[in-house]
């Protein structure tokens, strides 16, 4: 089962990034992918998925 996660959106809405489970899930080898959530509200560029990847890389 894959998990689609949006750390940037979660950080903006309710779960600060340092508490987001994405890095732990990814490090454990779980099937996770980055996704966008409400790109017109949360993201600042025309490439919301690139924003998610940039945020996750930090």
Q: How would you describe what is shown here?
A:
Pathway: Purine metabolism; IMP biosynthesis via salvage pathway; IMP from AMP: step 1/1. This is AMP deaminase. GO terms for molecular function: AMP deaminase activity; metal ion binding. Keywords: Hydrolase, Metal-binding, Zinc. It is an enzyme of class 3 (hydrolase). With about 60 residues, the protein is mainly alpha-helical. It has one domain. It has 4 helices and 2 strands; from the N terminus they run E-H-H-E-H-H. Strands 1-2 form a two-stranded parallel ribbon. The protein is globular and about 30 Å long. The relative contact order is 0.26.
Short description:
With 58 residues, the protein is mainly α. It has four helices and two strands; from the N terminus they run βααβαα. Strands 1-2 form a two-stranded parallel ribbon.
Shape: globular
Q: What low-confidence regions span 5 or more consecutive residues with pLDDT below 50?
A: none
- How is the main sheet built? 2 strands, parallel
Mean pLDDT over the full residue set = 81
Number of strands: 2
Strand content: 5-15%
Work out the radius of gyration: 11 Å
| Domain module count | 1
Number of helices: 4
Identify the strand order in the major beta sheet.
1-2
Give the ordered list of helices and strands: EHHEHH
Which structural category do the helix and sheet elements fall into? mainly alpha
Task: Measure the end-to-end span.
Answer: 25 Å
Helix content: 40-55%
């Amino acid at each position: 089962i894959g998990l689609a996660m949006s750390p940037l959106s979660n950080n903006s809405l309710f779960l600060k990034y340092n508490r987001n489970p994405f890095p732990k899930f990814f490090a454990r080898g779980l099937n996770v992918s980055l996704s966008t959530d409400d790109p017109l509200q949360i993201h600042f560029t025309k490439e919301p998925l690139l924003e998610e990847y940039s945020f996750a890389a930090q």
